What we know:
alpha/beta, Rossmann fold, 5 strands
Amino acid sequence: xxxxxxxxxxxxxxxxxxxxxxxxxxxxxxxxxxxxxxxxxxxxxxxxxxxxxxxxxxxxxxxxxxxxxxxxxxxxxxxxxxxxxxxxxxxxxxxxxxxxxxxxxxxxxxxxxxxxxxxxxxxxxxxxxxxxxxxxxxxxxxxxxxxxxxxxxxxxxxxxxxxxxxxxxxxxxxxxxxxxxxxxxxxxxxxxxxxxxxxxxxxxxxxxxxxxxxxxxxxxxxxxxxxxxxxxxx
Length: 234
């Protein structure tokens, strides 16, 4: 049996931390190893305890969750999921720019919270499809169209040169928000094959997760932001 996922809870409200701890601790494959009430304490405990996943509140005293996330990710100490009561774009963008692996509302149900911890610990990004487009529009730059109003594609990015044609195809579909299962169906291959291609893409492009892959797909000009097919699934 594999070791349980080690989780650090960070929130300035004791009641919130206690509630999350109660939900997670009943799972055999998850262990809550510590709690912090502010960003500074979160960074210190992450260094000391080395959790796999940090559930990070945004608005806290001494140091907010965005800065704490930036420090934790910069030193590759743990994966971070941003928690907030507000579905605000600025929190999402700032958190992902700081290196968070995902974003979760505090009012998510218990099953969603548990699956979020498992997903992020397994190296998956946690970003709802409806948020993907907003993230891309904020985190990428460049004109959407030329003078005639036609979508403009950037020059081919040299970062893509190391990818095989199939890996490029997989990256493009990830950039449109498709899941591994959906990509497998689109390409008429097994899901395991998609995972292999995606692992190769991550390794060759030095990407941490799907969020970074989505952003790179747009930055590299692989996908048009005006493309009618550019609609995240779900």
